[in-house]
Amino acid sequence: MSPHILGIAGSPRPNGNTDRLLKTAMQALHDEGYSTEIIYIRNLKYSPCLGCNACSKTGKCVQKDDIQYLQERLVAADRIIVAAPIFFMGLNAQMKAVIDRMQTFWALKYVFKQPVISDPERLPRYGLFLSASGTHFKDVFACAERSIKNLYHVLDVKYYGGCFYSGIDQAGDIEKHPQALTEVREKALALAKL
Fold first, then answer.
1. Are 145 and 166 in contact (CB under 8 A)?
2. Average pLDDT for consecutive 10-residue bins of the chain (194 residues)?
3. Based on CB atoms within 10 Å of each CB, which residue in 8, 87, 142, 181 is the most buried?
4. What pLDDT is recorded for position 178?
5. Is the dihedral of CA 96, 183, 138, 134 positive or negative?
């Protein structure tokens, strides 16, 4: 069965560099006949985690917003590609706030001892991370990658790696990186074939 691939566009900037990376990946997958969808975090209505621990007591978040829809789509996906930029050496605030709201999955898995994916036929699932940074610091992607790895771990998704591009700041700068779009296409297609 062909996997369904979900792309999460985490940038607040429409058609920014990580949006372009994600669209390139998803178009390559679509062109090969894979089932794809993209969710733009900036279009969702949600609030940050309240830290109330209700999810550890009831298994549900007290906030009712678009995060429940996003969680449904994350569970339905066979492959996940998160694309988000680096702000101040970490994930941008919008993407990080969404990850914090996945605490309900953590509670499901570690408090209630229930699997996120109950059908073993759907495992393993795999995920990819695409990112761009304006700076060239050696470890500029380290914090963001750690957050994505933890997200994927909680979601029963094996981390397949990332495509990272530094020195990419202004919208459209990714087009000046000669290999970026080719690398992203190839990595996305390899992800789908796992």
1. no
2. 94 96 98 97 97 94 97 98 97 98 96 94 96 95 98 98 95 90 97 96
3. 8
4. 77
5. negative
Tell me phi and psi for residue 141, to 5 degrees.
Answer: -95, -5
Structure tokens at 78: 């066979």
Residue 12, preceding bond cis, omega within 30 degrees?
A: no
Q: Are 183 and 171 in contact (CB under 8 A)?
A: no
Predicted confidence at residue 1, as pLDDT, reads 66
CB 47 within 8 A of CB 63: yes
> CB atoms < 10 A from the CB of 7, how many?
25
Let me know: does 157 contact 15? Beta carbons within 8 Å.
no
Q: CB-based contacts of 158: which residues, under 8 Å, 6+ apart?
A: 124, 125, 126, 127, 152
